[in-house]
Design goal:
The longest helix has 16 residues. Helix 2 packs across helix 3, helix 2 packs across helix 4 and helix 4 packs antiparallel against helix 5. It contains 13 helices and five strands. The chain has a five-stranded antiparallel beta sheet. The chain is elongated, with a radius of gyration of 21 Å. The protein is of the alpha+beta class. Helix content is about 45%, strand content about 10%.
């Protein structure tokens, strides 16, 4: 995956993360003539207790096997959280692997039955955020949840998504960081290559976020959206792994205003059946 993803993933990650740490955060004076954002290489090496030459070799991809102690020191200096630290360890521990056999993402029949029974917005997504199946309430919530759509592409390229999400910028950052986490070392997966390449060409926001090398999970949480018919909805989100796919459900607090609005939405005439499509190759 071409940066979108270079062959020096460890060095790219270290460089991106040090550029996001200010001297003040690291306990250093800001200085009067800094040519780079964030920390300099020699500052990272000093704070981590390693030689400047060795750190330079790490960033330039000349040494890809730092010790766990070195990685722990770098994680501390770069202020990495648990998810980011795990990602760093994975980059340093990566080894050549046999190509993975691509399997079509399949929605089990029992999940179709579950979707049909649920009276809250629910849909199934694949690893690249392709929508594989959805129920009528999901489509009533957003037509961008129709099978065949890609949630990240819609978020970044569909103007209606800007109005739909109360905090669009935070949603975009979370999705891009979650995609990088999901990709992991599966950088030659054709679907990931296609999606990252498309978004890198078509979205400046994606290019900016991708260059940060943020990683995070996109699991449960609470979000506020603006529906064009019923207005503001405050919804909880849960993501439940089922075999090779993810069931995503949105639901309000019981007897809340958002609960009443979802009931109203459910009473509107349905326009879409529950369907499934295979994601793009």
């Amino acid at each position: 995956m071409k940066d979108p993803e270079s062959g020096n993933r460890l060095g790219d990650y270290l460089r991106a993360r040090r550029e996001l740490v200010s001297p003040a955060q690291a306990g250093l004076p800001p200085g009067g003539n800094r040519r780079v954002p964030g920390l300099r290489r020699e500052e990272v090496s000093l704070l981590a207790g390693i030689s400047a030459d060795y750190y330079l070799r790490l960033e330039r991809g000349r040494d890809k096997n730092p010790s766990p102690q070195v990685l722990a020191s770098l994680a501390r200096v770069l202020r990495l959280d648990d998810v980011e630290r795990t990602y760093l360890l994975g980059l340093a521990g990566a080894r050549p692997r046999a190509p993975r056999r691509k399997r079509p993402e399949h929605v089990p029949a029992r999940v179709h039955q579950l979707l049909a029974q649920l009276r809250i917005p629910a849909f199934v997504e694949g690893r690249a955020f392709d929508v594989l199946a959805s129920n009528p309430m999901a489509l009533a919530l957003s037509p961008r949840l129709r099978p065949g759509q890609n949630r990240l592409r819609s978020l970044l390229l569909d103007p209606e998504e800007h109005a739909f999400h109360q905090d669009w910028a935070e949603a975009a950052a979370g999705f891009v960081a979650a995609l990088r986490t999901t990709i992991g070392d599966d950088t030659d997966n054709p679907r990931f290559v296609e999606l990252v390449g498309e978004l890198a060409l078509s979205s400046q926001r994606f290019r900016t976020l991708w260059a940060r090398h943020d990683v995070r999970g996109l699991d449960g949480g609470t979000t506020t959206v603006h529906h064009p018919v019923v207005g503001e909805l405050r919804l909880h989100r849960d993501k439940l792994p089922i075999d090779d796919v993810i069931l995503v459900v949105y639901y309000p607090d019981q007897d809340s205003e958002s609960d009443e609005k979802l009931r109203l939405l459910a009473a509107l005439p349905a326009t879409e059946p529950v369907v499934t499509v295979r994601p793009p190759p």
